[in-house]
């Protein structure tokens, strides 16, 4: 975690908690390396800081394969699209929109490079950053049905929260 450690060192004292969280969420817990680093990369790509994204991506490449990185990129991009679309449908609350099909391509969700549950976990974490209730519920259901536990989900969301907080801190120092 050489590159992430450099980011941690650059965070100011008022956000010391983020320094510690950025280290702890990427170690141990219920997630395996593929899940942990896939979620971290997808969230770093969605959190709004190129410095954080580059650091997480570089460190992840030393731990997981290209298939995890590719799925993380796909999850971040697809959720950027889906979260806007489904959040709109939910927030506007009109049956007319709810009944209409999305007509947006998202076949990667059904055919990830890693496995369906890991990809869904990445999508869940990115959806939490983007604040899409419909997507959060859908992806949480998919990962639980896929055999993960609430502990897995919470660990993924802790990563998402920390990546978003670190991105805000980095971009405002």
Overview of this protein structure:
This protein is mainly alpha-helical and 173 residues long. The chain has a single domain, classed as AhpD-like (Up-down Bundle), CATH 1.20.1290.10. Helices cover 73% and strands 0% of the residues. It has 9 helices and no strands. The longest helix has 27 residues, at 66-92. The two termini are 21 Å apart. The mean pLDDT is 96.
List keywords for this structure.
9 helices; mainly alpha; AhpD-like; 173 residues
Strand content: under 5%
* Sheet with the most strands, sense and barrel status: none
Secondary-structure arrangement, i.e. CATH architecture? Up-down Bundle
Classify the helix fraction into a percent range: over 70%
Structural domain count: 1
Evaluate the radius of gyration: 16 Å
Helix-strand category: mainly alpha
At CATH level 3, the topology is: AhpD-like
Mean pLDDT: 96
The CATH class label is Mainly Alpha
The secondary-structure element order is HHHHHHHHH
Distance between the termini: 21 Å
Low confidence ranges? none
Assign an overall shape: globular
Number of E strands: 0
CATH superfamily: AhpD-like
Q: So how many helices? A: 9
Task: Please specify the SSE layout and strand pairing.
Elements: H1 2-10, H2 16-24, H3 33-46, H4 50-61, H5 66-92, H6 95-99, H7 116-130, H8 133-145, H9 150-171
Helix pairs in contact: 1-2, 1-4, 2-9, 3-4, 3-5, 3-7, 3-9, 5-7, 7-8, 7-9
